[in-house]
Each structure stands twice: as structure tokens, then as C-alpha cells.
Amino acid sequence: ILSHLTENKIWTAVQHNNTGLTRVQGAHPEKPYAMSFNYNSSVEQLEAVINSAEYCEQEAAYHCRKSRLLNTPNGMPFAWWVGRSNEKHLYWGGSLPGIQQCACGLEESCLDMRYFCNCDADREEWTNDTGLLAFKDHLPVTQIVITDTNRSNSEAAWKIGPLRCYGDRQFWNAASFNTEASYLHFPTFHAEFSADISFFFKTTAISGVFLENLGIKDFIRVEIRSPKEITFSIDVGNGPTEATVQSPTPLNDNHWHYVRAERNLKQTSLQVDSLPKKVLEAPAEGHYRLQLNSQLFVGGTASRQKGFLGCIRSLHLNGLKLDLEERAKMTPGVTPGCPGHCSSYGNLCRNGGKCVEKYNGYFCDCTSSAYEGPFCKEEVSALFEAGTSITYIFQEPYPVTKNASTSSSAIYADAVMSKENIAFSFLTAHTPSLLLYINTYFHEYLAVILSKNGNLQVRYKLSKDGLLIFTIDSGNFANRELHHVKINREGRELVIQVDQVLKLKHNFSEIDFKAIKSLTLGKVTDSLPLDPEVSKANAYGFTGCLSSVQYNHIAPLKAALRHPSVAPVTVKGSLTESSCASIMEADVNTVTTIYSSSDPFGKTDEREPLTNAVRSDSAVIGGVIAVVIFIIFSIIAIMSRFLYQHKQAHRSSQTKEKEYPENLESSFKADIDLQNTVSECKREYFI
What Gene3D superfamilies does the record point to (predicted)? Predict the structure, then answer.
């Protein structure tokens, strides 16, 4: 079992014996092809991983040429997979249990809309059905069966990926205690020689008992005694021992707090959040066995006094997870789950992302953010060429007067943009460049350009004040490095930051920048009145990488890449999604050329994935072998030259008759040059 970290997630991957692309021919219903999977974990371990995970998936890919998959819409499937409990499943990756379809069927994007899988169209050309199997109760995949590859030109290639899971399903397992008399009860906590209790709580109450378990004389209890005080009490027959942690700030602030209470034969300890741990040493003599015999009370006590008001989640006793939600469903005064996670975790949603409550947690809504990902932290960026243009069209103010005049200014009174919050990152080697252009229905505009010498300019063209130019001349920004720009205007105050450094502050005497018509990234293709400097920059547009562009609540670049058919956005020219950060140190000219090529990796037949994979692998292996052989021969040649030189020197010292060959030095240099050429070729290949 391997674990690896991606952005904000720790994935656990369990490999099996065949995760590569595998070709199948000659299979038919009377003689099916079957492959069983053996995982490098036991069945019990696999089920434990899946059951405790928040989410699990396995990729299922079926490449086909005249090989049907599920035989949709109404036929008996020609291929299927077997999952947990040895059940046969007739849906494919990207679809849902009980629906005999592939991903394209659900998305209504199949090559032939009469079928619910691409492969079911039974075409002569290569196509595929690929998606994720993510219904946990059916995972892992233990076998795949294929029965339609025995006809002329019929062939298939399949791939089942490793089992991948992330998250702790119990992390958000919570219960809300709505009255002081409400509680949950569980079987007796057996902790004779050691106890390890951990949980999160959230409350506004002054005091209350989190959990308690009694014996005849012994007991164990964790409680909040006052807004700033958590106490862990235990008695094993020697009298009560109390470990108390004092907090400098109130803990009944309706935010989540963490508690861990431990006891063993040597000591008793209590940890609250990241405050210093309170540790008490156990007495050298006396009783040491904790004997409990009543039920475990959670959120209350046996006497039903000092009950807890609030939420408890992720309760673990000696490594065992208690299912609070399931028990709460059948208990009066207690409800499963807990609202208000955003009060504690909302600040994890970054870059304008909004925290949204869920029954069992929260998620970050990145709709209005220029970023994406679980916490709105992943950049959305793309490579532009000289003619690339993205134009975002804003809704026209209502009512619209086509011939705007002084008298019509009242029409736009409610449409005045009181602020501009602009943020983006860029990487380029070209000047002049037009990065961003915003124009209004009053023929005003805001342009951000790189001038010929690489300075950054923010240019406002206002109807009353005319042209205002703000120049950031702290260096050449067309230096193939990633730069971050923020332009904020609140009322009359303008603030410009570049690379997190305040570069300029300005107070307008008056500004009425309003009624925004459109925003353009890259080249402005409409015939608009531009001043000479902006026109020069616009002649080249922008060549390079733009990332995470934000204008107030609009993310135009993200809209163009993620929702081009829905958002009011128009894309002209070549636009290729890529990571600006990953290419920051690369030559922008080279990168743009490579990514803008229609066939960047050479001409291959995309319809034959298996063949191409084999050809590609063979080519790489052959190339590596050729280079290795060449280097070996070069080394042998060099050693021969050295030996020859040494031998000649020895002879010369003896006879004084022979001299070095005239071409020795040039031959040696040629060998070195050849090695350098190979080295350079390798560097170019890996770029």
C-alpha cells in the first residue's frame, strides 16, 4: 500500500498484478477472455481501507476497434467486471451502479448517440470508453471478462488502474447534543491498563461532560469545567487523578477544538489543541487496573447532570472509531451531524472561494474565484500566441441607449462600477504586449500593457480626465519569470501591487469608470479607439502564459477554459491550457512553439492506443540503447587514443624517432564534441 500527497489530499494506492494496457484478441462468448486481479494486500486490509475512506476510485479503460463493450442500448453485455463479494457489474467507468452505460452515455457525448458507450457503435476505427469506478461498496475490481474480439479486424485493449482512496470517513462523523439531558450510550469502555481518547468538540456552553464511564468505585471522565478549562479525571482505586489544561482564550467560542486524553501505567496526560500537554506521573504503589462496568455515556453522565450542549465529532477510543451519527439517528435530543463547520474551517477556502456547509463537513465553492481545487488554490492558466484573444462580454445596462450622451448618463446611475479588483499572473519574453483591456459603453477603457522596454503600464482612458498612465518601471517584466499583478481601486483610491510589493498609490480627483462592456485578454480584435501605445502593444497581442485572472467576481480565463459554451466568452486563436509555474524557467518562445503545434509529439495514429504505446516505448528504448552503445564506443575510442598517446610518448622517449599523429588532438576534440552533442540532444528531449 502506497500513500502519496497531492494538493490538499493524501491518497492511498493499492496496486494489483496488471495495471498496464493489455491487448485482447480472439475472445467470444463461448471462449471468453478473463483476467483476475491479485492485490498486494489481503481482502480484509482492502475492505478496511475502502470502508474507512471518504472516497475511493479505480480507473477503467476499454480501447476498442470493432469490439463492443456493454452492447447498449438493450443487448446483453459483451464485457463486464467483477467486484467485491464476487458480484458481476454491468456498468463501466464514469457511470453509476444499475445503469448499463458508459460515461459518454450519462454525459450524452457518445460518438453515436444511438448507443450509450463509444465502443458499442462497433466502428472500424479505434475509440475508447474510459472513466472512474467510484461506488465503494463494489470495489475493488477483482476480475474483467471480455467476449467480443474474435471477428475480422476486431481488437480491444483494456486497463484497470490501482485502487486509490483518500480521506477518513469518520473524521466528520458527528452528533449534536441539543439538551443537557441528551446523551448517547455505548458498550463499556474496556481500558484496564491503558486508555487513549480523542475527539473534536464545539460549544457555546459554559460547562458540560463530554464522556463518562463508571465502575463500582472506578471511573473515567472528560469534561469542560469552565470556558477556559478542560479536565480529564480518572480513578483506578487510589482516589481521583485530575489532569487539567487551562486555555488563555475561551474554548466555548463555537469553533472546533481538539482533545486527547491518555492514561497508561506510567502517566496520565491531557492535550487540548496545540496548548502545552498536562502530564501527571502515576503513583509508584497502589491500584493500577481501571475496572468499569456501566455503559459509556457520550455527551452526558449517568446521573444526567451537567450534560453537554454542542457538537462532538471524530470520537476515537483506543483506536476504535465510534459511529456517533448512526447512534444519534435513534436517540431523542441528539441529531446526527453538526452544522457550522465553516466557522472553524472557512478560512481554508482561499482566493475568493466561499465556504459552503455540508451535512458532514464543508466544501469550497470556487465559482467566483479564478482558482479551482478543493480549497480554491490551484491555478488556472493557459498559453497564448500572438493572435490569441479571450473576450468576456458583460450584460448591457438596462435600458440601453445606443447613442450615449450627457443626458443619458442617468441611465447608468445604477451601473457604476464603484471598484476594480483585478488580479492575474503572467510570464512572457515579448514586448510590447497587451495583457488586459476593459472598455465601457462610454468609450472609456482600462489597459494593462508591457511597453517596449518591459515596463508595466496601467492606462485609464476616462471621459473627463482623459488619459492617465501609471508606469511601474522597477525592471523588465518580460524576463521569462512569473509576475503577479494586483490592481485595486476603491472609489478614488488606486493601489497597484506587483509580486506582492506595493508599487503605486494614487488618488483620482474624480472617477466615473462605469458601464463595463467587455474585458479582453490578449489581442483586441474589435475595432476600438486605442491610444498609440496601446495600439502598438495590441499589434502583437500577448505571447506567453496568463494565470488565474480575476476581475471583481468574474474569472474570464477560467470561464474560457472550463465553461466556453455557457459563459459569455469568445475565444479566438490558439489557447492551450498549461501551468505557468511549471514552465517558469523554460524559454517562453520554445514552450509556446511546442504547445501551439497541432501535433507536438509527431504524427501518430491516436486511434490505436496500444500500438502507439508499444511503438512509443520501442522508440524510446531503441533510442536509449543507441545512445548507450554510442557512448560506450566513444569511451573506448577515447581510451584507445589515450593508450595510443601514452604508447607513442613512451616510444618517443626511447627512440626520439616517432612523433604524435597530427590528427590526434582534432580526433579527441571530435569525440568530446560528439559526446556533448549527445548530452545536448538529451537535454532537448527532456525539455
Answer: 2.60.120.1000, 2.60.120.200, Laminin
Give bridge partners of residue 56 from the DSSP assignment.
Answer: 165
Alpha helices, DSSP H only, in 35-137?
Answer: 43-52, 103-107
Report d(CA 518, CA 309) in Å as an integer: 53
CA 2 to the chain's CA centroid = 19
Helices (H), 446-492: none
Query: Using an 8 Å Cβ cutoff, are 107 and 99 in contact?
Result: no
Q: How far apart are CA 127 and CA 103, in angstroms?
A: 14
- In contact, 220 and 290? CB cutoff 8 Å: yes
Mean pLDDT for the stretch of residues 141-153: 94
Q: Structure pTM? A: 0.51
CB 366 within 8 A of CB 353: yes
Cβ atoms of residues 492 and 476 within 8 Å: no
Res 110 pLDDT > 80: yes
- Angle of helix 609-655 versus helix 664-686 axis, rounded to 10: 160
Which domains are present in the chain?
2-167 (2.60.120.1000), 170-336 (2.60.120.200), 380-396+419-577 (2.60.120.200)
Segment holding 615, helix H or strand E: helix 609-655
Per DSSP, the residues of 488-502 read EEETTEEEEEETTEE
